[in-house]
Amino acid sequence: MAGLEVLYTCVGGSISCPQDAAVCFVHWEMIKSGYRCIGSGDEPRSSDKKSELLPADWNSNKELYTLRYQGNDGSAQLILKAITADSTLIFNLMNPSTQQASDLTVNISDHVDADQLNTYDSVFKDAASLSEKVKTQLLPSQGRPAGRKAERKTRGEQEEEERRRREDSDPLRIPTRHPRQGMQPHWPGPMGPPFAAGGADLDPFGSRGGGGMIVDPLRSGYPRSGFDPSSGIPDILPPGAVPPGARFDPFGPVGRHRPGPDPDHMPPPGYDDMFM
């Protein structure tokens, strides 16, 4: 692999374990993707400078490797960390400005021969597979600038999405019914069809020719007696109390003062017997 051999030869004297070789391999994949190493550790130093080589203290901690990179175009910095966990090496690449991160777990024995650390020609196993994993799982996508999100949602879109998420999680909320698009139906007024039957309720004086009832017994079309409430009801309503043609609901039987005894005036037998 062009370039990797030169790099490995330069740092070969400091490589003492398989994870050193794996970190060296991933470092070169970063260089091939257009990044340059500017130093080690999490914090910037005065001695930082862009380079294709590894810093002098790059493998001082065998349990945690920390390297900082920056693109050739001056894009945001990236921090690469490699954590040793038993026989695996966990790589984490993060953009501190956006907190965007990616991870890759490598089984060291699958790609590094621990007995050939001093021989570049035989130290790496299945290098093509490891290179593909680094490009597809760890490095930022080639379709967007390094360290930047491909698409940023506006503040309003984020608030709207959060509001919908809260509404959808409310089990007692009734879903919103969106109005139908297009021409709205024409609803006639309360005094016109198809509400002509009930429209008289809003016309108590009968100016429309009907009373204020859907089925008015005085205007049902059937033969009726000559009873006219506007002439008054003896001992109940004086003449003129009900306007002519107005709705009138009798509040007592008409003609109740009929001749003869009233059954309500006859007490039942034994009425005075309290034990009845």
Provide a descriptive summary of the structure in words:
The chain is α+β, with helices and mostly antiparallel strands. The chain is built from 7 helices and 5 strands. The chain has helices at 4-11, 18-32, 108-111, 120-123, 127-138, 155-168, 196-199; strands spanning 35-40, 64-71, 78-85, 88-95, 100-107. It has a 5-stranded antiparallel beta sheet. Strand 3 and strand 4 (88-95) form a beta hairpin. The longest helix has 15 residues, at 18-32. It is rod-shaped. Mean pLDDT is 77; it is low at 143-151.
* Mean pLDDT across all amino acids: 77
Give the overall form: rod-shaped
State the share of residues found in helices, binned by percent.
10-25%
Q: What is the SS-derived class?
A: alpha+beta
Give me the number of helical elements: 7
Separation of the first and last Cα atoms: 120 Å
What does the radius of gyration come to?
48 Å
Q: Please list the strands of the largest sheet in the order they lie side by side.
A: 1-2-3-4-5
Q: Hey, roughly how much beta strand do the residues contain? A: 5-15%
Secondary-structure element string: HHEEEEEHHHHH
